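#lab-general

N.A. 3:47 PM
ok so I finally got the sequence cleaned up, no stray characters, all 144 residues accounted for. can someone with queue access submit it? mine expired

B.Y. 3:52 PM
send it over

N.A. 3:53 PM
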Amino acid sequence: MMKYFSRLADRWGECRSPASCPAVSYDSVMTIPSKALAGVAFVINRISFGRRMELSRLVREIGKKTEFLQAGTELQERIEAGILAHEVDAMYLRWGLVSVAGLTIDGVPAGPEQLLKDGPEELTQEIVAAIKAQFGLSEAERKN
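B.Y. 4:20 PM
back already:
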């Protein structure tokens, strides 16, 4: 245990008070180059405690809708489940997408609403997957 502390002291040098420690820089967003569209990059929010709570509240609201829809017929349930899955993805996109660089849609800079309405689906899906990965969802959870 003592060796651990001596290595830690070596690593941190003479950082004995907050004023003498070097500042740590943290970016609350991350820029990701698109694999779907060359020359396009998107900026998404990194997960934080507050953002996780906010997103959990939004997901909870959609969960309430799911309970309501479970009372329908089998065909209706499948249709509603598909709609609900798209609503969840749209919610993630609106929540997590900060900006898109290198893309205009019908002459307008791309943003969440433009992507959802008229944007390239493969880019939209790529962005949603990146946002879900920030939230820490497993592959199986992302499919739902």
